[in-house]
Amino acid sequence: MSRPTVRSAVRRGSPQLRLRVGFLVIAIVLSVFAARLVQLQGVDPGSYAAMAAAEGSVTVTLPSARGEILDRDGQPLAETVDGLMVIADPALTSEKAPQIARFLAKRLHVDYIKTLDRLRVEGSRYQYVARQVPASLASDVVNDAEDKGFDGLFTERDPLRVYPGGDVAANLIGFLGTPGADGSARALAGLEASFNHYLAGKDGQARYQVGAGQEIPLGDNTITPAVNGHDLHLTIDRDMQWYTQRVLQQTVEGAGGDSGVAVVMDSRTGELLSVADYPSYDASRPQDFTDHKDLFKSAALTDVYEPGSVEKVLTLSSLIDAGLATDRTRLTVPPELDRQDHPIHDYWEHGTLHLTLAGVLAKSSNIGTVIAADQFKRGQLRSYLTRFGLGKRTGIGIGGETKGILPSGSAWTDQVDDRIAFGQSVSVNAIQMAAAVNTIANGGVRIDPSLVEGHATLDDGTEIGSDDATEHRVVSADAAHQTMLMMERVLDPDAGVAPLAAVPGYRVAGKTGTAQEVSSDCGCYNGLTVSFAGFAPADDPRFTIYVVVHNPRPGSGGGSTAGPAFSKLMSYALRRYGVPPTGTQPSRLPVEW
């Protein structure tokens, strides 16, 4: 009998095999768990923790309040009032999303497609539909939606921007556009745009955990408070601004003009009490003026023109300061002055005249001014005009300001030199020119014009405002005084050309301006710009006012058109601020010899 063969392998199904396989499986599972643990705790713990927290959390925007824009007395020109945000709960709105989106698009003028998407966001319980909705409208929309069986709409507080004055200072203030995709409104013009970051503040947020659609009382709740924007205080006097705009409108329309500007400045501080443009727009209804977007700016800063004879104030005061003339310097003025390429004329026909320098200014003689300016050395007049502020921006804080045109180098020819002396071949903006004339009112010291009271920060980081205004001497106090006496003769009915600019009971110094207007269509002269600039009381100035009318009907002049508007504005300013007459006698400087 043979013996059975002995097998070395373990029998299938034996306990040892099962044990080895089991240990192998356990080792593999533990390795996977270990690797996952390393990933979670060592490699990328933050993102996974955030994902876990977000699974059951809701984030709510806490809107900040935009700073107000206030006049010099604290009266609001732009303010933030209570409004409401319309919110949707997609868990409740998704079923009827198309119907609800059409309803909201019609009532709130929101985009249908974007609203439809928001109403259908899966896993979300909070989507805003519209921001900064007037409270009454938002409440009506939500109530009407409930009546129609549209569930899931509710409201939360969301401040709303309003402009209580309508068109008052709209050219300066600007406005906000419709809130964008991130819910924030875009600043589209004026100070709202230039100081957007300063005014806007920063929205906060509240983040809380939810379960079954409800906030978990003891959950992880985090609140980042909203930071409200800064208020912007202006030098503008709201009532003075309103009155200036009305007088300017009447003046432009009465003269059949295309447009105009008017500036009222505190002579001592350079603070702007009013800056009016006509035509303008209503900042509370900018959508009504979308076909005239050129109105969404301040023409007093962005539009340039030739100042005409108002510039003679700068030319003649510079001559006196340089010791090249006095207010009594005698000049022989011929009927015509042959110069280079074109003879120079006065606006009226005359024979040979014997005028003093005061007479040249009082009668606004181009010929007399050019003859007097011949005393300047080459480059001397340009140097003075630069110190008066021509050819550079005032920097008062509104975007789009032009620096004007003051020729230099080879562009300053002999012909240009003659024309600039009486206000042509040089371009300015209205505030620039008002500040230049105010230099004479301020005793020969130019002070930067200011629109912002105190100081504030532009979006580019520049600090501006009345606290940061600088000043520098342009002409001597004596030269400024002599020029003031000459400017008084401009309003004298027996000697000057602008008796209609007078203010009864007060001494007034002023100067008319009439200049040909350059057309952008042809690059040639086409139409006129008429103006009047002055200050009062002449011997103790409180206010400097400048009125400009573009393209009035033929026959209009600075004295007859802008002069009466100046008189109304100056009279109002003197009464409003209780400025008494000085009680002194006006200038009797001789105008002829």
UniProtKB/TrEMBL annotation:
<dbReference type="GO" id="GO:0051301">
    <property type="term" value="P:cell division"/>
</dbReference>
<dbReference type="InterPro" id="IPR005311">
    <property type="entry name" value="PBP_dimer"/>
</dbReference>
<dbReference type="InterPro" id="IPR001460">
    <property type="entry name" value="PCN-bd_Tpept"/>
</dbReference>
<feature type="domain" description="Penicillin-binding protein dimerisation">
    <location>
        <begin position="62"/>
        <end position="212"/>
    </location>
</feature>
<dbReference type="InterPro" id="IPR050515">
    <property type="entry name" value="Beta-lactam/transpept"/>
</dbReference>
<feature type="transmembrane region" description="Helical">
    <location>
        <begin position="21"/>
        <end position="38"/>
    </location>
</feature>
<dbReference type="InterPro" id="IPR012338">
    <property type="entry name" value="Beta-lactam/transpept-like"/>
</dbReference>
<dbReference type="InterPro" id="IPR036138">
    <property type="entry name" value="PBP_dimer_sf"/>
</dbReference>
<keyword id="KW-1133">Transmembrane helix</keyword>
<keyword id="KW-0472">Membrane</keyword>
<feature type="domain" description="Penicillin-binding protein transpeptidase">
    <location>
        <begin position="260"/>
        <end position="570"/>
    </location>
</feature>
<keyword id="KW-0812">Transmembrane</keyword>
<keyword id="KW-0132">Cell division</keyword>
<protein>
    <submittedName>
        <fullName>Cell division protein FtsI</fullName>
    </submittedName>
</protein>
<keyword id="KW-0131">Cell cycle</keyword>
<dbReference type="Pfam" id="PF03717">
    <property type="entry name" value="PBP_dimer"/>
</dbReference>
<dbReference type="Pfam" id="PF00905">
    <property type="entry name" value="Transpeptidase"/>
</dbReference>
<comment type="similarity">
    <text>Belongs to the transpeptidase family.</text>
</comment>
